[in-house]
Amino acid sequence: MIYARPRLMRAIPACATILCVLLFLCGCEAFARKFTRKQKKEDKPQEIMVLNPQAYPDAKADKEDEYRQYFMFWKSWHEELIDNLSDESPSMRRQLDSVKEAINNLSEMQKLLSGDKRALAGGYLDSMNSLKADIAKDLYYSNAWSLRRQAEDLKNKIGRELQYKQVEDELK
Predict the structure, then answer these.
(1) What is the residue-wise DSSP string for 116-171?
(2) Could you please report the per-residue DSSP string of 74-97?
(3) Residue 103 sits in which domain range?
(4) At what angle do helices 63-85 and 144-161 cross, to 10 degrees?
């Protein structure tokens, strides 16, 4: 029992401090607010379901803007084709993808044209398709420079004769 008394003397102040801290925390407004139950909010009214949806008309760009976009897309894809043909380590897949996209944009340009310019664009489409076939046949890249030259000539001709200023009168 001799040893129990000093332990009791040390435990009393520790219990007193714990009790003071608990009383202080229970009296703290923020602490009390944290553990009090919040009141339920009123239910918000549900939104009315739309039974007859309204269809909005699509904003169709006029033919001139559409032609200019296709021309710009064709030009960028054709330039990428030329860059891919002049690479030191060429990729057949990239070359074929570039020429395919250039052909797609050129065909979209042709759909917007009428008259002589439509026939001219059709001739250029045939040239682009033959270029695509030549690229697909050249497995060992032995004709890369001649294909590049052919692609550059096509780009210059198409850019000169099918630019918007030349065809604005023949758009559908």
Answers:
(1) HHHHHHHHHHHHHHHHHHHHHH-TT-TTHHHHHHHHHHHHHHHHHHSSHHHHGGGB
(2) HHHHHHHHHHHHT-SS--HHHHHH
(3) 63-170
(4) 160
Q: Which distant-in-sequence residues (6+ apart) come within 8 Å of 58 by Cβ?
A: none
- Could you tell me if 77 and 26 lie in one domain? no
9 and 85 part of one domain:
no
Task: Write the pLDDT tens digit of every residue in 91-125.
Answer: 899 999 999 999 999 999 999 998 899 999 999 99
Q: What pTM value is reported for the model?
A: 0.64
CB–CB of 99/134 below 8 Å? no
Tokens 């294909």 appear where? 147
DSSP label at residue 62: P
Same domain, yes or no, for 15 and 77?
Answer: no
Bridge partners of residue 135, in order along the sequence: none
Q: List all residues 6 or more positions away from 147 whose beta carbon is below 8 Å from its beta carbon.
A: 85, 131, 134, 135, 138
